[in-house]
């Protein structure tokens, strides 16, 4: 689990380097230049880092269950695999069954998105048998559940607006405003949320 957190922190470090580039260009360039898309990219990459972290935690946790190093969960036990994968696992010598199982899990999870709070909770259900996941996560962040989920949804909505609608306000036709402070708040929240989740599922 901590390898997943290390990868997440490295991805966030890359996001912060975009911020450093933004500050440098803003403070040194003498020509008029709009740099807001550097800020928007920080939100996109921060959410992407969070999504990848949840994917990594789920995959690692499922493999730990498969190898007997983590308690089984109802969602894990109810997950289906094809008969072909079952046969491959029964007959596995090389590559070993753990590798075959990991490839199947990667295949099943790769099209899923773990950004919305409900989808995050559903993904974590594979490896974490906690009924009130966001209550526990929010408590670890020293926040209340409703505001925590609401803030994550707002961040994801902004990310989706940037990615799918060029961050344009449909009423005015202009791009939505964005500030360095907006990005700092997003990154701080995502870091805190990610670290809380890792501490709870490790």
Provide an overview of this structure.
- The chain has 202 residues and is mostly helical.
- The chain has one domain (2-201).
- The protein contains nine helices and no strands.
- It has helices at 2-28, 36-66, 74-78, 83-90, 97-109, 117-124, 133-140, 145-165, 180-201.
- The mean pLDDT is 93.
Features:
202 residues; mainly alpha; 71% helix; 9 helices
What is the element layout, followed by pairings?
Elements: H1 2-28, H2 36-66, H3 74-78, H4 83-90, H5 97-109, H6 117-124, H7 133-140, H8 145-165, H9 180-201
Helix pairs in contact: 1-2, 1-9, 2-5, 2-8, 2-9, 4-5, 7-8, 7-9
In short:
With 202 residues, this protein is an all-alpha fold. 71% of the residues lie in helices and 0% in strands.
Morphology: elongated
Q: Classify the secondary structure makeup into a structural class.
A: mainly alpha
Catalogue the unreliable spans.
Answer: none
Helix content: over 70%
**Which sequence of SSEs, written as H and E, runs from N to C?**
HHHHHHHHH
Give the count of helical stretches.
9
Strand content: under 5%
Arithmetic mean of pLDDT: 93
Number of domains: 1
Largest sheet: none
In total, the number of strands is 0
Compute the CA-based radius of gyration: 20 Å
Cα(first) to Cα(last) distance is 6 Å
